[in-house]
Amino acid sequence: MNRIRESARSPEKLLDANLNQTGHLPEDTRSCKNVAVLGATGSIGTATIDVVNQLNRVDPEFRWHVCAASGHKNISLLAELASGLDLPPDRVVLSDRKSAHAFGEDEARIRSLGSRVDFGPEALISAASDASVDIVVAAIVGRAGLESTMAAVEAGKRVALANKETLVVAGPVVSRACQQSGAELLPIDSEHSAIFQCIQSSPCPPKKLILTASGGPFRNWTQAQMDVATPKSALAHPTWKMGPKITIDSATMINKALEVIEARWLFGLPAEAIEVVVHPQSIIHSMVEFEDSSVIAQLSPPDMRLPIQYALTYPRRLPCPSPDFDRTKPWDLTLEPADPERFPGLQLGFEVAAAGGTAGAVLNAANEEAVGLFLAGKIRFTDIVVGCQDVLRSHSHESDPALDRLLELDRWARKELRNRFKL
Ligand SMILES: NC(=O)c1ccc[n+]([C@@H]2O[C@H](COP(=O)([O-])OP(=O)(O)OC[C@H]3O[C@@H](n4cnc5c(N)ncnc54)[C@H](OP(=O)(O)O)[C@@H]3O)[C@@H](O)[C@H]2O)c1
Predict the structure, then answer these.
(1) Does the beta carbon of 139 sit less than 6 angstroms from any atom of ligand 1?
(2) Residue 294 belongs to what domain range?
């Protein structure tokens, strides 16, 4: 069994590389912002379209245009979204070729808007790197979003990143590509957006990053209850309405593990400078502690439209469709430590963030595969983390892999995970 080794490389940070010396992105001179929404039919994608439509009502400086939108299988929603935009998209991409045969009327509806329709994963890459695009919203779920996110990074775009799995799988590769192309990577994940906002309060570097976690639907469940948890109960998140994969990740707390890894790459702090606290109300989105022990937090009601908009309009702040606090009523903010006994998946995030190299690709692939098997009723809820631990510990860690090697290990880890359960 191979121990995951501590990476000898010093932590790199993505957000610093993105910012100019004033801490702000360079002035923009264009009057229209062309936004490509990859994963438009998902929870983040539809919220992004809502934000863009609203920006056109409140932004005095720019006209906002969803110039490209992609979906994978949800053809009817893709057509509905394209038809509902203030300005029709230039291009609509259906990334799942197998769904093309069922497109029919919906495809005709999109073409009647004057939009071009493209198919397959190559069309995603082309949409992400098209010269007309200013901002790419990377909102595809899982490792499937990696190639298009990389294409946007390599083309030097502003990338509003929801697809955390890209950084988990290939943090160092993305980091190098950002430095070469000048791409601006801005987080959509509410925790990382919060940290990004908090660190702007001081020119001094943070001492600790404190990620908050809702604790998910099983925060108060016993191990025995979790052993027999059904997909339906795991999908019932108490505070956030999200896609199925991240909702299950939230129930196992692997989502927080992935976010620890994401934070390590975005902010360049080592794993030991990152902490997780459980905050069931999901109002404090994360905190930063400075050298003098002062803690700065970002608060807002749980609604992804705020971090999405901030990534689009940064450094400007404009009215947002997310709700305000109702301060006429009493409200509680509870913080409690995470329970490593009942949620062992969280620890994997710290191990992988410290190890770097190939560990992220292996954890991510094992987890994606296990979540799929759990949702299909083939393994138990608690098998997800056990399977991830097993696969991670059986892989031979490499500290400086190229992207091809990471993708090879992604395939290996999925197979290995299935083998563990004889599937
Ligand atoms: N939801 C949230 O509140 C939230 C918060 C923070 C971060 N995130 C992150 O944002 C990303 C998206 O999450 P989500 O909750 O929006 O997921 P979701 O609702 O399940 O949507 C996923 C999107 O990806 C598309 N897609 C699925 N498989 C694909 C493939 N193989 N190739 C290309 N496109 C594919 C889907 O298309 P079809 O539906 O048309 O098949 C859909 O547009 C994830 O990385 C998640 O961790 C989400």
Answers:
(1) yes
(2) 193-322+331-420
